[in-house]
UniProtKB/TrEMBL annotation, chains A, B:
<dbReference type="InterPro" id="IPR036390">
    <property type="entry name" value="WH_DNA-bd_sf"/>
</dbReference>
<feature type="domain" description="HTH marR-type">
    <location>
        <begin position="21"/>
        <end position="160"/>
    </location>
</feature>
<dbReference type="GO" id="GO:0003700">
    <property type="term" value="F:DNA-binding transcription factor activity"/>
</dbReference>
<dbReference type="InterPro" id="IPR039422">
    <property type="entry name" value="MarR/SlyA-like"/>
</dbReference>
<protein>
    <submittedName>
        <fullName>Transcriptional regulator, MarR family</fullName>
    </submittedName>
</protein>
<dbReference type="InterPro" id="IPR036388">
    <property type="entry name" value="WH-like_DNA-bd_sf"/>
</dbReference>
<dbReference type="InterPro" id="IPR000835">
    <property type="entry name" value="HTH_MarR-typ"/>
</dbReference>
<dbReference type="Pfam" id="PF12802">
    <property type="entry name" value="MarR_2"/>
</dbReference>
<dbReference type="GO" id="GO:0006950">
    <property type="term" value="P:response to stress"/>
</dbReference>
Amino acid sequence: MHRHRPELLPAPSRRIIMGMTKPAAITLLAWDRLLDAGARAMRAARRELKRAGLPPLEWYDILAAIDRRGPGRPRDLQAYLGIEQYNLSRLLSRMERAGLVTIMPCPGDARGQIVDLTPAGREQRAAMWPAYSTAIHHTMESRLDSDERIQLAGMLEKVA
Amino acid sequence: MHRHRPELLPAPSRRIIMGMTKPAAITLLAWDRLLDAGARAMRAARRELKRAGLPPLEWYDILAAIDRRGPGRPRDLQAYLGIEQYNLSRLLSRMERAGLVTIMPCPGDARGQIVDLTPAGREQRAAMWPAYSTAIHHTMESRLDSDERIQLAGMLEKVA
DNA sequence: GAATTTTCGATGCACCGACATGGATCGGAA
DNA sequence: TTCCGATCCATGTCGGTGCATCGAAAATTC
C-alpha cells in the first residue's frame, strides 16, 4: 500500500523521510522502495487476474503448492506457504466450494484432513498462469536485464 | 502474504514454481523473493507497532507525509502516497476521529478539503518512529551492508 | 452561459484478514 | 488407564480493503 513520491535524489518512491534516529538515509530509501515495489508487484498481479475474471492471487499459490507437493495436510501447506491457519482454513473451504480442491478426512489422524486438487483445480491453475506471468513479465523482465535480476534476487534473499 | 518454503537451490522463499511459459527461472525467483521480502518487511513493521500498542502502519505514512509536506488536499496526498482514493478517504476520517488530523473545507474549491496535523498527530508520529525504525533496522541494516543496501535500492527503483 | 465532461471525495456492499476462541483428537506422563 | 497439555482445524466478530457508484462542484466545450 501507500508509497510516496520522490523528493530526494533520483526518482520516485520513498517512504520514511525523517532523520529522527538511527537508520541511515540509504537504509530508509531501500526500505521504502522494498515496500513500494512489493506492494506494486502484488497489485499488478491481482489486477491482471481480476481483469481476466480469475480467482484471487492466493488461490494460485495454493493450487501451485498442492500441484507441486501432492495431496497433503493443511498444516503442512500452511507452513509451506507461510500463511495463517485460519486464513488457509477459509481459503480451502472457498476453493472446495468452487470445486478446485477436495478435502478428505485424514486416515490415521481424525483431527486432520487431506487436501488434493481436482481436475478443475489443475485447469484453473493453468488458466491463471498466463495472467499471472504477464504481471511478472511486466514487472520484472521489462525493467531489469538478466544480470540485474540475478543481483536483485541475491539481495532479496538476504532480506527475507 | 504467504510465501513458500525453499526447494530449489540456495535458501528459502519461492513462489511461482513452474516453467509453463515465458518468464525465465531467475525472473520467477526474483519475483517470488520480492513479494516475499516485501510481505515480511511489512509484517515486521506491523508487528512492532502492534506490540507497542500503536496505530497501524498506514497511519505513519500519512502522518509523515503531512508533516513533511504541510497541510494539503487529499488528492495530492493520494498521489504522493500512491494509495487508493477511497482508502485514503476512510483512513483520514478514522485519523480525524482519533484526533490526529484536522479536515477543513478547501477555500477556492468547494469539493475539496485541506488536511493538516494536530499537535497530537505530530506526537503520535514521533511516538511511532522508534517501533517503526526498529523494524527497519532489523530488516535492512542487520542483514545488508551499506553497499548492498545501495545496490538493492537501485534495483528496486527500477522495479517500482 | 448552458451543457457536457471531469474531478473530488464519500459510501454501500461484499470479501478478506487478524484475533480470539472453541471443539475434537492425539500424545505423553503419572 | 486416566489426565492434561498440545495439535489440528473451524468459526464468530470486527475492522480494513476493493469495487462500483454517487452527489456535488469545477472545468471544458460549444
